[in-house]
Amino acid sequence: MSQAKISLLSHASVLIEVDGKKIVTDPWYFGTAFNDGWELNPKPDLEQIKGQIQDVDIIWISHEHPDHLHFPTLKWLAEFVRKDVTVFFQATNSEKVFSALKRLGYQSFIQMPHMKKIAISPNVQLACYAHRHLDSSLAVFVDNHFWLLNVNDTELSTGDCSLISKQFGNPTVVYNQFSIAGSDGVESSLKNYAAKVMSEMVRQHKELKARLTVPFASFVRFARTDNAYINAYANDVFEVNRQFADAAQTLCVQAYGSGALVWEDPTQLPVNMNAVHSESLHLWEKTENPGPDLHEYSVISAAEVQTTIESRIKAWRDATNPILWRFLKLEKITVLVRDWGDQVWEIDFNNATFSQVNAESAADIQIASQPLHQAFKMPFGIQTLGVSGRYQFGAKYQTVPASWKKIRILSSLFNAEIYLSLSSIFSSSTARWIWQRRLGLSSQIVQQVKRFKGS
Ligand SMILES: [Zn+2]
User: Any alpha helices (H) in 30-186, and if so which ranges?
Assistant: First the structure.
């Protein structure tokens, strides 16, 4: 085999060069994500990236979060990349991602079935590991050896790691997310969350028996007045470096300007690893933190927010089996809207109403009208709110209230076009999806239920 290389371009985007093929992952190079809650930090050099990837063969998208599937960036790319570039994305029960990319001018698509290898050149194969209802990892095989596992946001459990190792072997290198990706709205939980991301990264490295981990996919900051406090809890590459040193595991930090990691042999460590690592740490030391952008939002009127919330709840209710809906026991939630002069409003899920109430006791949630409106306006709005962190539960909450957890799950299933109704559960597209995902799915559902009960 000739050399294989991986360059860090931006956030979760790397350029993989192997066997004459160029693969770009999750391109997000400018602009914001998650209702303007996130910005790239630092910002990459667009001209340099353009030069590196104009002849790219494959774009792989891990999942539908806008820091991974960033439509403005993909639109910009479509203007200069080759017309026959192929977009690889996990097989799901929906065609909506490919349909949206077709409208941007992309013509060639490959649906990746869960854990099935796809040859892209005589010596290289790709496979995806679909995770829960949304996410996926990318496995790259070179000369039949498991070279790379791009874990990014997939929170691989012990069961996932053993399934991957059993099926594919042990990866030489793992690329993994290293910091917090949102807030559950309870500030006191952020410190533990950040520590957990670190320990999970080390655990996955060990369980996968990887030779090397490279931290990426967390090069962002919480960029608005209402979520900037979260930055104080974020992990940086120096912290990851310490954690891996303490655990006596091998880590290599990369930076945007550090150049590619180069492999002569896909079973061994990269030949220039030490040089890249020390140069990258030096580059990160010199990187200045720009500080929060004090961007404020326009106020959304109460009438508009009310219409939006009420119609969203009705849509969820209509798509859910009535018995299940009652079984969910959704309790009312009170909301203090910061930019409506701290008025308190109540969301009543059972009656599908949003109305102002007298604020006798502290409200459950504090939020501004714009993120509140977005949360219910977009099908993925509740998830976006969690990732942007632009809300906070009242001081009385040490954990997320049960009703909110249920709404999170309901809305995320709804967005994945999985409805809790009999006709949907028995539909052929859902059945096909369950069959394709049979390896790993049941343990991931258990993980989801644990999360639901726990955090
Ligand atoms: Zn994500």
Answer: 46-53, 71-78, 96-103, 158-168
